[in-house]
Design goal:
The protein is of the alpha+beta class. The protein has 17 helices and 23 strands. The structure holds one RNA strand.
RNA sequence: GCGGGAGUAGCUCAUCUCCGGUAGAGCGACAGCCUUCCAAGCUGUAGGUGGCGGGUUCGAGUCCCGUCUCCCGCUCCA
């Protein structure tokens, strides 16, 4: 990370804490690594983001409905989804090179080397015997080849058994016995083999035995897939249709850092769109464009976004696109659009033994729908808004201000109301105005300190509009409304505050 | 997880270094005064068992060990 963006990132994190957006979890007890809490302003911003996403998906699309599934799910869900197998890796570090490897990979590479030796022997023999060479016979009888083959077999047996038993000590022993060296450092100075589990587990019920182990979901999508039939049938949904969900997910990341970008407990906003097989690429394109449009509607300039097409695909996908955002630490994934094929629904059909299909009246056939997923990290979106919004501004008079240029319709507090001075009945008038506005907008009243200071305080949390009650207000019932970014003021009648704020909030939504 | 750096008031920091002797400032917050519009007027108040635990010592923020957390690099990442 470049020095100045590193500084900027630090300032944003400090600002987020100082102004009640994000606190480290359990800070009182020295904090909990990679877990964060949202403070009084953070929760408002986060709720506003959620609300906007939810409306964009569920309210603005008649064929998309919502869902709120539980975090606990039947353990077989994760067997079916592939998470149980795909994210259970035994890892080992070389103390000299500081490199980390998958222990089973190292052993497999060793076996491949042995296989390479066999191939070499075969090649040599073929050269020697020419036309008469009988490969099968050679493989079965050549002393050296047979020895290599036996070695491979015995290693493989030990490896498979060790993995099955989750015997980490045996894996380490195997690496020691084979005298495997680190390709980088060339040494055999290894740590113990340790198990890394992506998923958190816990016990359901008060008796602790292995049979009631359950996992905290590592993605919300599976809650949608296992409810596909329920929603499709009870909602009488016709393909194509979507199910949207906002919820917490949990991942025990090996390294979880970078503030709220990568957390152990995080929130996803996902929409799974069920389509007829063969049309998935069209819908993939469609949602790619829709999601880009949605991001543009936040009013953040295009250059903050970059599209990235995946070449290494996850176990469930046949196409994947990331929308990346220019965070202070560089372009990083904000949202993923994936064509998940029928991988998940088929897997659940197989593991549950139930028919997870759709009868298409048009084609008069049943099929397992294909799925196009849009999956965005709520916390990452929050961070993108926060890091875009943070600005240290030099004003014409030479002074500085820190202003959070949060898209106004997402701002934690929409309207702040101040009496110019704390006397002459101005505070009472200001209270009166707030009481009229608070049912429509999140408002804030302040009378402490000089007026300029109060403006700056609200700049720092991104409040788009400040209403000031002055002496003229008492004569003609007008107030000034000050706009955050331009710092310009208009004088408007009290009765017009609500419609004008409404109008401006709408305008600001791309 | 490994390696390096750091942790003193809400924030920024001072004191720390070869020399151990009962923690200060600015900003901020709060209360009040003064002020007719963009942070810096006046008065007062609160706030720290120096991340936590242990050791050495008559005495530790200061020396030693452990631990937690954060930052940087490496590794991993649906």
């Amino acid at each position: 990370m470049a020095k100045n963006s590193e500084d900027r990132f630090k300032k944003i994190i400090a600002h987020a804490k100082e102004y009640g957006f994000v606190f480290q979890s359990s800070e009182l007890y020295d904090g909990l690594s990679a877990v964060y809490d949202y403070g009084q302003n953070g929760v408002e911003l986060k709720n506003n983001i959620k609300d906007y996403w939810w409306k964009s998906m569920v309210q603005y699309h008649e064929n998309i409905v919502g869902l709120d599934s539980a975090i606990f799910m039947h353990p077989r869900t994760w067997k079916a989804s592939g998470h149980l197998d795909a994210f259970n890796d035994p890892m080992i570090d070389n103390k000299d090179s500081k490199k980390r490897y998958r222990a089973d990979d190292l052993i497999e590479e060793h076996m491949e080397k042995l296989q390479g030796k066999i191939d070499k022997e075969v090649k040599k023999a073929r050269k020697r015997f020419g036309e008469d060479f009988d490969e099968e016979k050679f493989l079965a009888t050549n002393e050296r080849v047979v020895k290599y083959k036996e070695q491979i077999e015995s290693i493989n047996n030990r490896l498979v058994k060790a993995l099955e038993d989750e015997n980490l000590g045996e894996l380490k022993q195997l690496i020691d016995d084979l005298e495997i060296v680190d390709p980088v450092s060339g040494t055999k100075n290894w740590t113990d083999v340790r198990q890394f589990n992506l998923m958190f587990d816990t016990r359901l019920g008060s008796l602790s035995d292995d049979s009631n182990k359950v996992y905290l979901r590592p993605e919300t999508a599976q809650g949608i897939f296992v409810n596909y039939l329920n929603v499709q049938k009870t909602g009488r949904m016709k393909i194509p249709f979507g199910i949207a969900q906002i919820g917490k997910a949990f991942r025990n990341e090996i390294v979880a850092r970078q503030f709220i970008f990568r957390m152990r407990e995080f929130e996803q906003m996902e929409m799974q769109y069920f389509v007829r097989p063969g049309t998935e690429m069209d819908w993939f394109e469609y949602w790619k464009n829709e999601r880009v449009k949605w991001h543009r509607s936040l009013g953040i300039p295009d250059e903050y976004y970059k599209l990235y097409e995946h070449e290494n695909l996850a176990h469930y996908a046949n196409a994947a696109y990331d929308i990346e955002f220019a965070y202070p630490m560089g372009f990083k994934e904000l949202e993923g659009i994936h064509s998940r094929t029928d991988f998940d629904l088929s897997a659940h059909q197989e593991y549950s033994g139930r028919k997870v299909q759709y009868y298409d009246p048009e084609t008069q056939e049943s099929y397992v729908p294909y799925v196009v997923e849009t999956s965005i990290g709520l916390d990452r979106l929050f961070l993108s808004v926060l890091s875009y919004a943070y600005e240290e501004e030099k004003l014409d008079d030479g002074s500085e201000r820190i202003v959070m240029k949060i898209p106004p319709f997402l701002a934690p507090i929409k309207v702040a109301v101040f009496p110019l001075v704390r006397k002459d009945g101005l505070p009472e008038k200001a209270r009166e105005i707030i009481n009229g506005l608070k049912y429509d907008y999140n408002c804030h009243y302040e009378e402490k300190d000089a007026i300029g200071k109060r403006y700056r305080r609200h700049d720092a949390i991104g409040t788009p509009y400040c209403i000031t009650v002055d002496h003229q207000t008492l004569d003609d019932n007008t107030v000034t409304i000050r706009e955050r970014d331009s710092m310009k003021q208009d004088r408007i009648p009290i009765d017009n505050i609500s419609p004008i704020v409404w109008e401006r909030l709408r305008e600001n939504r791309g």
